[in-house]
Please model this.
Amino acid sequence: MDFELSAEQSALIGRMREFVDRELLPLEPAFLVEGPAAVLPQIRDKRARVKELGMWAPNHPREYGGLGLDLVTHGLVSEALGRSPLGHYVFGCNAPDAGNVELIHLFGSEAQKARWLPPLVGGEIRSCFGMTEPGNSGANPLMLETRAVLDGADWVIDGNKWFTTGADGSSLCIVMAVTDPEAPPHQRASMILVPTDAPGYSHDCNTPVMGNRGEDLYSHGEVSFKGCRVPADNLLGRRGEGFKLAQYRLGPGRIHHCMRWLGICERALELMVGRARHREITLDGRKLGDSDIVKAFIAESAAAIRAARLMVLHAAWRIETVGSKNARDDISLIKFHVAGVMQDVIDRALQLHGGLGVTDYTVLAWFYREERAARIYDGPDEVHKIAVANRMLRAPRA
Ligand SMILES: Cc1cc2nc3c(=O)[nH]c(=O)nc-3n(C[C@H](O)[C@H](O)[C@H](O)COP(=O)(O)OP(=O)(O)OC[C@H]3O[C@@H](n4cnc5c(N)ncnc54)[C@H](O)[C@@H]3O)c2cc1C
Model:
């Protein structure tokens, strides 16, 4: 098996990684201590520079100004950008816009594409995705209660959503709503494009999450639809296909997330090694890295990252060769496994930094807080484990 990257892949990923390290890591101290607003002007400049350098929107279609990378290459890019909490936004491939663009590109009408894709891919506007509801189990989206009813030429939508990431400042919300309550469970819901200035739509507040009160992209909004009216042709894809589209959205999206998490792991491991190499722990100058326990932290982290990386790249290759549906076990396995690896690696790095580890003077505490949710969103660990195990238990015996 050939693990060599092509010359183009290596060159692009090398340039991106260098940009992240040289241009974005220096913004981190202000970002972490003062909040995202403190570095917004610099972030705008960096985004412009990324566009000039021809590295903008790596995953988005070429015809809309992206680089149109295949899934494996974008996975590698995602890893390079994951080293900084700013990477994906500065390069125009942040969630949830990335998944939303993909949905509109694949399932949108020509009019929907013409209206939304140029400003979304260009990074002029942002979008959000509203599926989870405060009153119902998000792990089982069949329990959705938000309703959309056709009234003349309009959908009228009623319901509440939360954890609508980036709703604050978004121009578009793709909402998942029940349109056919009597249909079989998986055909009850549809996706509808709701411009955030539509009558009856409201972004009510940002939910405080792990001490983060939320600011624009780095926020999770609570939004409501009260008799919210949008034209009937704002339906995305076909009526009753909401779950199909949601499944589609999550396949490639999980590769992006998992590779981003591996970028975070590598950064945490670098910090771990740096700390172990330099921190003196005895009067005679012994370093943390002289401890066998610390050596085990480092080696176990390196092995877990290496194994997880191979798993994710293999899953990306499977999605591209056999499709998301046939690769669903591969996708579930990486989703919970890599989230767990990331949590362990960040935790070890933080532990070796002692008190400093829990301050915002390194990026570790940010990663520790923000990325804990990786084991919950896009399907909690338990749901993925149960799904994989059920398929194995039901499979014909060899
Ligand atoms: C940071 C973050 C960002 C998010 N962004 C978005 C977004 O942009 N848009 C959006 O629509 N949603 C978003 N979500 C919501 C996310 O998808 C849900 O939180 C997730 O689906 C879990 O749903 P829930 O919170 O209702 O938990 P519940 O469904 O109530 O589940 C609670 C816990 O119970 C356990 N559990 C659930 N089902 C089972 C089972 N069958 N067997 C065993 N254990 C089980 C799991 O441990 C789970 O964590 C986000 C969430 C977070 C934390």
User: Anything to note?
Assistant: The first strand starts at residue 127 and ends at 130.
